[in-house]
Amino acid sequence: WRNKRFEHQSAANENTFRMPDQLSSPCSYFARFFDEELFQLIAEQTNLYSCQLRGTSINTNPDEVRSFIGMKLIMGIVKMPSVDDYWSEGTRYQKIANVMSVKRPMSPMSL
């Protein structure tokens, strides 16, 4: 390693980036990357994987996958010592617990 000035070549200029006329909601930005086609693909591949692993499909669907990913995003913000604490009587977090039960048989993403 040598300590020298970093020189770079950038093709971007000030006119390359501009603010949008209107800001979108966080959900709109999320939907640009996670569209309905992706949720369908995740559900299909999850069902296929469960068949390969256990011999039966868990029969998940795009809506359930969307809910599960939303729960995981919230769990990344609202942290609890244990996953079970989101459903426990004394620490129940309704935004998680009301979406899906903690003991779903063959949970879609726990395979």
TrEMBL record:
<protein>
    <recommendedName>
        <fullName>PiggyBac transposable element-derived protein domain-containing protein</fullName>
    </recommendedName>
</protein>
<feature type="domain" description="PiggyBac transposable element-derived protein">
    <location>
        <begin position="25"/>
        <end position="104"/>
    </location>
</feature>
<dbReference type="Pfam" id="PF13843">
    <property type="entry name" value="DDE_Tnp_1_7"/>
</dbReference>
<dbReference type="InterPro" id="IPR029526">
    <property type="entry name" value="PGBD"/>
</dbReference>
